Amino acid sequence: MTRWQTPFGSLLAALLFLACGGPTPPGFALEETVRDLGELDSGPTIPLTFPFQVGEEAVRIDRLTPSCGCLRPKIMVAGQEVPLGTELAPGTKGVVAVDYATAGFLGRKFTGVKITGSGPGLPAEVEVQSWLRSWFEVEPRAVQFGSVNGEQEERRQVVITGREPFRLTGLLGGAPPLEVVGIPSAEKALSQTIEIVLPPTTAEGRHAGFLNLATDQEGYPVPLAVEYTVAGRLWTLPDRRLLLGQVPTGVERFETIEIGAREGRLGTPEVVLEGIPGGESQVETLSEGSRYRIQLKVVPDAAGTLSGEVLLRLPYTWAGTQEVVERRLQVFGVVRDA
Q1: What pTM does this model have?
Q2: Is residue 251 domain-resident?
Q3: Is residue 85 part of a domain?
Q4: pLDDT, tens only, 238-276
């Protein structure tokens, strides 16, 4: 029994198609609907094919819907990819070709593709089963920085162990502002130690992402999950960028920026607008000494790209020390003629 149940009619058609001397199914029929790959190393992308034949009635395949982003399916006939929506004539033989990307997955995995369209035998489904094991052992599997105030650098150590000596060669995919210290590796070893660095940041809230480390073992990268929450003494919302989207010319556009202090005392902010056409600002006190809202007005006068900056000067007192903290927000938008 599979996780993706093939309609009884399609399954029966496939069985008849395979039966020696049995009648030819009238439409779309797969030679097999389930492929069990057994135990595999997680990492490589595996090409798979599910052969099919069209019987006495033409069919049209309109959509291939994978149950997981790890599958990339397409229809191939005579070695050429067939665009979806193309009618397949009676007697056509081809394959549902699937690239199965295993990187980042561990343990038992069931995944598949729904094949929908019109004609006998459709809809149909194919399923891929596997048990994925890691070529590498990573400790910890996920890097948890926890809650940080964003005011100083944070570091976490990660130990990666392989089945045989290997090198870390680079970073395939990052998650800014995170940095990795220790790549590329100086030499091959059974175990490599790196550090994940979280620089000072004002990006408030919870952040989660993946670092993808390249190795000299072809097809075996090291995916590494990272999570942290920034809860600084001072915060702004948004924290770095104010995205306006599309803005018509000559029309007033209003946005808000909120500023607050979790500790200490925050005075009334000073707002300076740079490169913002028709820009005006007004500060509203939400909670004296701790929270404020800035009403920002933009009135673009010409089509094109809008790129400016909001400079915030924040009078802040904490632990008996007074200072003016500056925060900058980049403002982006696209101006269209009204």
Answers
A1: 0.61
A2: yes
A3: yes
A4: 988 899 999 899 889 999 999 999 999 999 999 999 988
